[in-house]
Specification:
The complex is a heterotrimer. Chain A is an alpha/beta fold. Chain A contains 11 helices and 14 strands. A 6-stranded mixed β-sheet of chain A has the order 6-7-8-3-9-10, sandwiched between helices. Chain A has a 4-stranded antiparallel β-sheet with strand order 2-1-4-5. A 4-stranded antiparallel β-sheet of chain A has the order 12-13-11-14. Chain A is globular. Chain B is mainly α. The chains are: A alpha/beta, B mainly alpha, C mainly alpha. Chains in contact: A-C, B-C. Bound molecules: adenosine-5'-diphosphate (ADP) and magnesium ion (MG). The site of magnesium ion has 3 residues of chain A, from helix 1.
Amino acid sequence: MNPILIERISKSYKGKKGQRIQALSELTLEVKPGEILGVLGPNGAGKSTTIKILTGQIPPDSGTVEILGAMAGSMQARSAFGYLPENPAFYDFLTPREYLHLVGAAFAMSVDRIKSESDRVLALLDLQTDSDRPLRGFSKGMVQRLGLAQALLHDPDLFIWDEPMSGLDPMGRALVKGLMLELKRRGKTIFFSTHVTADVEAVCDRVAVIVGGRLQALNDVQEILADGIEGYQVQILNPSAELAARFSASEDNGVMTELYVSREALPGFLDLASRGGEDIRLIEPRRRNLEQFFLDIVSRNQR
Amino acid sequence: MKGRLALVTLVLAYLCLLPGFIGQMKERPIEVKLGYQPHARVIRLVSGEFSPLVAEMSVVNLLFYYGTLVDKWQKNIIIRPEYMNMFRMLSTVSELDPYNQDAYYFAQAAFTWELGRVKEVNMLLERGMQFRTWDHWLPFYAGFNSAYFLKDYAAAAKYMQRSAELSGDTLRTKLASRYLYESSRTSMALSFLDGMIAREKNAAVIKTYQVRKEALQAVDTIEQAVLAYRQAKGGNPAQVSDLVASGLIKVLPRDPYGGEFYLDNDGRVRTTSQFANPDQR
Amino acid sequence: MSKFAVLIQVNLKTILRDRILHAILGAVVVGLLLVPAISSFSMRQVQELAISLALSGISFFLLVMAILLGSSSIWRDVEQRHTTSVLTLPLSRTTYVLAKFAAIAIFLLGTGILLGICSIPLISVAAASYPSDQPILWGNLVVALCGDIAKSMLIAAMALLLSSISTSFYLPFFGSVVLYLCGSASQEVYEYVTGEFVRAMHPLVIVIIKSVYCLLPNLAAFNYKVQAVYALPIPFEQIAWSVGYGTLYVAMILVLAVLTFNRRVLG
Ligand SMILES: Nc1ncnc2c1ncn2[C@@H]1O[C@H](COP(=O)(O)OP(=O)(O)O)[C@@H](O)[C@H]1O
Ligand SMILES: [Mg+2]
């Protein structure tokens, strides 16, 4: 059974002067078990709207959403995932431990299990020292980490996170990326939204690009990265004159020469190099990266 | 769905409970409270431009309270009305808005007869006269009070004179002199009450006037009989029942305040109720 | 512990950790301590005044707390987006609303009892300084206190209902203040219009007043202060009616609050 099944959902909001804002149109998406799927889109693309519908906070105007076979918003569906809201806000008179107690109780966990799991997630997100301090005095990053901690508490198989890296410092970002990969290793499914391409590149199996409320692309991240290879950067020690004549050097410091070989020319280059017994020190793919891929989609839509 | 069912059930249960609930709420001891009021100067400071309105609302509150009191008297339920607070509230009103006529008229109606606060009422009326310089009723009341209750005929004549000047009704001075020298106290009071009833709008106040009038009429009847008895027999009757026995009165009139009429040693008509409601004695 | 119990606990903590509450509570305690001193100003009613001051002080505190807590509850959670995190947990909105009310009710009950206990020695001291011709019926005082607590709970339920609809402080706050004022006066007005001195009013007006009376909360039902102050007898039947009425009314309000909040779309 697919953890998440989104079928042709549309959603519009009431805007100013009775206008309708079409936040989502006919979005269809399927999240497979054990994958990390990133939803990438510019601000206002409809990512949070999608996640609010998934978590049952708002109903779609049309279409259906299933979470592990249960209707989105149902008690069964809500028990199935760990949710991190965008810029979460928690009762600020409580301490992290007290809040985790509430979350644990909501998932019908035993008091002992709540205690041990709280210790685990607080350690995981580096919050132990602040675990008994009221949330009033917490920085944005600390609240974000508590948000992740409470989403991890009952150790579900599915995670739905809205912008998990926002508000975090570089250490925090690295921590979360590591955490995601670790969860994937344990067979968990993660559905998260972001507007940062580097995050997708670092952790995602697949990426769904949403612009203007429509799904614009749904790709395997590795494929994009492979498709994106345009040529290669090659470093050769004292290349032969023939090689140097056919491939223009981009840099030459007398000892090491750097060449650019286009994707189509690579077989010819390798052939020539092996015949000539060239001393190749480095071949590095030169790719049009994910960011370029994303920007292309966005600009195509704006035209 | 379940929630709506619960709501419908609850509303039905509530509707079933209401009649019984409303019925027993009426049985409870009087809940109308006047309460303590801060000092007039404080209220005036706080209420600012609204002080006439506050005065007006206080009077309404007071009249309403008085209405429930009268209601309870009718049913013979004994309670302790807050007379001190009532009077304080009236003087507060007269300070908040010295032109408010209700305060003076109501004081005259409620605090003279049964409660015997005639001096205080006259002081309040004096204050009113300083502001309501055109109002001929205030000196008229003060004149009546001076004559009937205080027996201060000189003061009464002065007030009546003023009232007559203001009203342009010269009859009033004559009326006053008739009151003062010719008539018995009872008929003086009766004609005063008739005038008051004719002018009053508030039902509760009218009701009190009527009770008083009934009592005074009873007294008048007995007094006339005593007079006739004296003329016939040359002496005072020993008891009121003698008047019935000698056929001067058919049936002994009832005291609307719930007392029994009797004659004192001088042959004057008295009642065990002292012309007051049970809680005022 | 059940979800409901934990939610109540969380709400109670939020209530109890608020500094504003501490300030108000402190002011009330100081006020209560002044009761013997203020009562001594009365000439003949020292004991009566002490009882009525203490009960009124507690009643006023409970009323203020009920209105403040009730009217700053649900909409504020929505506005501050606490609902985003709490209501996406497997917690039903029904549980959420009822726990909010339960926490406020427990708070009102607790502080009511606490302040009631505090006022026992104060009333005793005042009463001893000028013995009244009436006894102090402590049972009546307890009934009066319970009545005040029940009244504040009803107001809190009203405020909660309004705050489940509202998106700001204004509607629940002013709404519950107005409902309180109307609810306190409704019995008087009803008795007035059904009394014998009303002839001037149009019958339609009277019908309207009577139906509004049935709709509004009747706070006079919970007022036993007169009986407490003047040691009047309180028939058991009367208490039973008040309890029955209060329970039904609060239940209705809460079901209404649950229904409206369940229908509310939280964006
Ligand atoms: N509650 C709302 N009322 C009106 N418009 C909204 C509301 N929430 C979101 N929108 C609009 O819907 C669009 C999508 O918003 P959102 O899903 O929050 O975008 P994202 O999370 O991708 O930045 C935006 O144009 C936004 O302005
Ligand atoms: Mg967003």
